[in-house]
Amino acid sequence: MTKLEVFNPATNEVIERLDYTSNEDIQAQIERAHKAFQQWKKIDAHERSAKLMKWAELIDEHQDELARLITLEGGKPLAEAKGEVTYANSYVKWYAEEAKRVYGRTIPANAPSKKIIIDKFPVGVVGAITPWNFPAAMITRKMAPALAAGCTIICKPAVKTPLTTIKLVELAHEAGFPKDAISYIIASGKDAGDLFTEHELISKVTFTGSTAVGKTLIEQSAQQVKNVTMELGGLAPLIVHKDADIDAAVDGTIASKFRNAGQTCICANRIYVHQDIAEAYTEKLIEKVHALTVGNGLESDVKVGPLIDEQAVKKVLTHITDAQEKGGELSRSIEEIQSLGGNFLKPVVISNANLDMKAMHEETFGPVAPVMTYEDLDEVIRIANDTEFGLASYFFTNDYRTGLKFFNELEYGVIGWNDGGPSAAHAPFGGLKESGYGREGGIEGIEPYLETKYLSIQE
Ligand code: SIN
Whose CA is nearest to atom 1 of ligand 1? Predict the structure, then answer.
């Protein structure tokens, strides 16, 4: 059987060769996870919590090793990769606590001789499919609440970045989780998606990735009315209003736009700046963007690593050339953008952007910041909402009325007000519209792994 080759996107060298898990082995693994569930669901919440705490301790101890793996297989600059390990571990720590806070309740009944009691139960075996852009955080964000709730979980990491998952699962076993309570498979998205959605012993499918794939998984899961959580695509608008602190808005833009070289679902995709401050904002943005060091994430001072592969580079270049053809002004030439070769692209600001450009209505997933000006607040909110996506949005204003108007009217699940980095383990991350459903993080993030039952007692 051919092996999976894992590449370093900074050098295009193969760094590991792994065996694929055969479909028969995946089926057997699902059966073992189901058997493990019969035991794991009976373990009391305090013990589940203690195991998650132990896992968190081991992740902290192995932060450098995990960060290096993230950089090697995903290209993320090392400092950012360390930040991802901390972020990933904050989910483990949060759900170690939440494991102890899965509360039921009682309801006053409609007869004195009756009592109604509500309790929550783990859904069962979870099949998780995760993306390459956060090889650690998207794993723990699913695994930690699943295990905290009493579920068992099998994860299928992205084939581009399986090594971080393998290490995380190894550490979980070292922390004392039963082998079949938390495991991974090496498989294509299609094989895992088919098996997870079709196998009757999988009770829940959780997926982070594209809206197109999410729709297929939802459709397939519908055959068994399977519980799903979907974290899908985004097209985040970032709005800078005329009363914003321009320096803070520029820093917030950089934080949002260039995280992981622009390859996150919540990266600002399209920027709208009020015409009164457009010149000052764009000038400062270009200065800071051009100061970002691009290179191999293992080298010190690198702020922007490579894109994940050649295909990603091609797509981003299409957005840049399309914008140029439609009247956009590039802050650096196409030749300079590509001057480092390989999967590297130097970040670019596109001023004079307009709504016809691909970069303003398709997810770019790269280091490109298109800036369009606007005059009217209601009009920019309308434009920001004029999409099937509803994951993240950002706005910058120092006026509280304008801020609350944005919050009330922007149709997005995650909203940053003067904040280019709104993600946190204690907040419910997730999208509206075609960006998915279900929330990950916060007290909401354990709910998708629980079923509610009620008991009506007649004396
Ligand atoms: C994502 O790209 O979907 C994850 C971003 C985050 O958790 O901040």
Answer: 265
What CA–CA distances, in Å, run from 324 to 263, 307, 319, 354, 366?
Answer: 21, 21, 9, 11, 16
Report field, pTM of the whole predicted structure over 0.90: yes
C-alpha–C-alpha distance, residues 321 and 173, integer Å: 48
- Of the candidates 94, 392, 451, the one whose C-alpha atom is nearest the C-alpha of residue 259 is 392
User: If the chain, 459 residues long, is cut into consecutive pieces of 10 residues, what is the mean pLDDT of each piece?
Assistant: 94 98 97 98 98 98 98 98 98 98 95 96 98 98 98 98 98 98 97 98 98 98 97 98 98 98 98 98 98 97 98 98 98 98 98 98 98 98 98 98 98 98 98 97 98 97
Render 26-73 in DSSP notation, one character per residue.
HHHHHHHHHHHHHHHTTS-HHHHHHHHHHHHHHHHHTHHHHHHHHHHH
pLDDT at 62: 98
Total length of the chain: 459
Rounded to 5°, the CA angle 353-235-165 comes to 135
Residue ranges and CATH numbers for the domains of the chain are 4-232+435-458 (3.40.605.10), 236-424 (3.40.309.10)
Atom of ligand 1 nearest to the CA of 234: 3
* Closest residue CA from atom 8 of ligand 1: 423
Check: CB of residue 184 under 8 Å from CB of residue 154: yes
How far is ligand 1, taken at its centre, from the CA of residue 188, in Å?
22
For the chain, what is the radius of gyration of the CA atoms? 23
Question: 69 C-alpha vs ligand 1 centroid, how far in Å?
Answer: 18
Report CA(54)–ligand 1 centroid distance (Å): 25
Please tell me the distance from the alpha carbon of residue 355 to that of residue 234, in angstroms, as a whole number.
17
Structure confidence at residue 408 (pLDDT):
98
Residue nearest to atom 6 of ligand 1 (CA): 423
140 CB less than 6 Å from ligand 1? no
| Burial of residue 411, with CB atoms counted within 10 A of its CB: 0-12 exposed, 13-18 middle, 19 or more buried | middle
| pLDDT confidence of residue 2 | 87
Instruction: Give the separation between CA 74 and CA 346, rounded to whole angstroms.
Output: 17
Positions marked catalytic? 231
How does DSSP classify residue 448? G
Nearest CA to ligand 1 atom 3: 265
Ligand 1 touching residue 183 (CB < 6 A):
no
**CA–CA gap between residue 233 and residue 37 (Å, rounded):** 31
- 384 CA → ligand 1 middle, Å: 20
DSSP assignment string, 92-118: HHHHHHHGGG---EEE--SSTTEEEEE
